[in-house]
Amino acid sequence: MQIGGFSKGLYACEDWGLWFRLQSLGQFEAVSEPLTDYYVHPKSLSSKPEVMLQAANVIIDATLTADLQGFERWAWRRRIRAMQLCSAGLIARNNGLKGEIRYLLRSLCAWPSPFWEPRRFATLAISVKNRFWRRSETS
């Protein structure tokens, strides 16, 4: 294959690098129907927020922002990191792990604009509501 396969030595987020390299061969087309299922097993790498964040950092620097410079590189790195932190919060929520709200707050600190991916704010609001709801039920 002219672009190579999955990156060796990267065991999480390796698909990002492959998809990014595939785009150099042409445009992607949207398909209206699902062609596959995605399941995150509680013991899979995708269910471990810190593993996913570390791997995302490698992909962000090595692939996703490699051709950018200066402010543009800094801004996109922060935006992507913000989304990964939001995803880590959802992983923590879905797997009953600690740190859900901490990840979501870090997401907003990484890129605080409410105009870029505003669902991060809604996700945090739901997490805070759930936390207080659980506390009030046990009181």
Which properties best describe this structure?
mainly alpha; globular; single chain; 139 residues
Give a concise summary.
It contains five helices and no strands. Helix 1 runs parallel beside helix 2 (49-64), helix 3 (70-94) packs antiparallel against helix 4 and helix 4 runs antiparallel to helix 5.
Walkthrough of the structure:
By secondary structure, this protein is mainly α. It has a domain at 45-138. It is built from five helices and no strands. Helices cover 58% and strands 0% of the residues.
Query: What is the straight-line distance between the termini?
Result: 60 Å
**Extended strand count:** 0
Helix content estimate: 55-70%
Estimate the mean pLDDT confidence. Answer: 86
User: Which overall shape is indicated by the principal axes computed on the Cα atoms?
Assistant: globular
Secondary structure topology:
Elements: H1 14-22, H2 49-64, H3 70-94, H4 100-110, H5 119-138
